Amino acid sequence: MSSGVAGANPPGWPWRSVMLTPRIGHATAYDEDRGVTVVYGGQDGLAVLDDMWEWDGITWSRLASSGPGPRTGHAMVYDSARRVMVVFGGWTPLATASAETWEWDGTTWSVRATAGPVARSEHAMAYDSRRGVTVLFGGKVGVKVLSDTWEWDGVRWTLRAVTGPSPRSKHAMAYDRDRSVTLLFGGWGDPWCAGQLWEWDGTRWTSRQDLEPAPSLRIGPGMAYDAARGVAVLYGGYLAMFPCPGPEDLAAWEWDGARWTRRETEGAPSLRAYHKMVYDSRRREVVLVGGDATPSGTAEAYLSETWVWDGQTWKARTPQARSGHALAYDSARDVTVLFGGQGRSPYLGLGDTWELHGNRWIFRTAQGPSPRRDPSMVYDAARGVTVLFGGRGGPGLLGDTWEWDGEEWLLRATDGPSPRYLASMVYDSHRGVTVLIGGAYMSAIDMWEWDGQNWKQIAESGHVWAGRAMAYDSARRVIVAVSLPRTWEWDGAQWLLRVSSGSPGNPQTQMAYDKRRGVTVLFRGYHVYERYTWEWDGDSWKVFLGGPHGRDRAAMVYDSGGAAVLLFGGSYFDDTWSYAGPGSE
Q1: CATH class for the region spanning 322-579
Q2: pLDDT tens, position by position, 280-296
Q3: Measuring CA to CA, which of 257, 324, 407, 506 is 20 to 30 A from 336?
Q4: Residues of the chain whose pLDDT is less than 70?
Q5: Cβ contacts of residue 181 below 8 Å, gap of 6+?
Q6: CATH annotation of 20-316
Q7: Domain ranges of the chain
């Protein structure tokens, strides 16, 4: 038995984002020639970002590029005539706005202009394909909001209009190819909130605000023009907050050049603002990326979700933000299985099943176990099934046992351990059994084993409080459990106290065993700024500073195919991270 804590960490960042991370203030545009949606920069609540990503309709891929540098609140469009992305403005980490114009040709970034519009952020741009110019309107400099209209022809900026929409920032713009006008809607400025639709034909602005019905006042909506159907699609934005009165609106609004149509459907994205929308002409769908799920402005509310709208149905291309979900790695099929949890807005239990194939999430089914949060789940390698137990559902605590074979869920048992949630559960690969311990707020901590046919209670009482702080060390054939401040190990017959004080666990802890490196990995963090990664080698704990945002009720597994620990979600995040250990970055 030891005090348990060894030396601090070597430098480095061993965590890697598997796909696009949550953000606001990002710029998004669709590259018509390559058929990909491109995202650049933004901010995640901890830092201003300079990363660049592409979405091909299936997978997010990070691009290696050195460009304008970290910025947020900038704007980006695709100039289809010259086949370049055009980026202007934005807020930098130095707390200054930029007046630079950059272009990216798919390989190289170049500064094209430093003169033109005054430095600003939170403006909007659209590309006018008929006239071959990028149109820019508004934004803000410090606390001053702007109402100027500029156009970029690839060589120089030209100030075009000083009258038109009122000064504003956080508005949305899109180009109507059929009618050859740039559309502008919403924003924040003078007056506080804007709800008017404006059209720019290259000569003058025309207000279309006298139409009813119409979308209400809103800040930070997304808008894109669906060229196949000939309508502009508007979604989201903050409404039910001071000083923007109005009910929450989860409907898409479509503008056909003459009237607005409200398109309310089931399964729409949750309420959000500051997301970005573009039209994917190759797949004939509108793509929605990221955003802020609440007006709080905190990182816990930022999203990386990807949704598509085909004119009839919204479809999530990545799992929605959640906490209290379950993960298990299916080694036979080399996929990570995700089930359930608690969603955001409304805070309801989820019953969806997803699988992660490499860096691609695939929705599998909404059939099977009832919606629930805080269930326990592991993969039974001997039988090739994922085992799920319990959780919290609509009627209360659950005590059912389900198995997923990669095609369907089967109810295997309704007896065994009493109904519970937040039970600790691992698969003992040496003995071929699933081991379950305890649960939240139980009067006694019991231990159970599932052999694929029956549950059997073990006489030995456990030492683990409810949570995720348990993993199976297959090399040493022991279960490692953290019950603050102690570290325990179970060898199949008895519990051994390994660390008496200084263990890193808390109720927000996740653990997984890294088979390649022979260490148990623990990620701890409740508050967004609390980020610690610990490793247990069987003798002592080592701590490594940094990692994803701190979070509550996330889930973590070891992906033997990718030789890395995977972490998803928690505290209503929707991001996916991998950890291969120090020196792997």
Answers
A1: mainly beta
A2: 999 999 999 999 988 66
A3: 506
A4: 1-13, 191, 240-248, 295-297, 345-347, 460-468, 505-508, 526, 528, 584-585
A5: 175, 199, 200, 201
A6: 2.120.10.80
A7: 20-316, 322-579
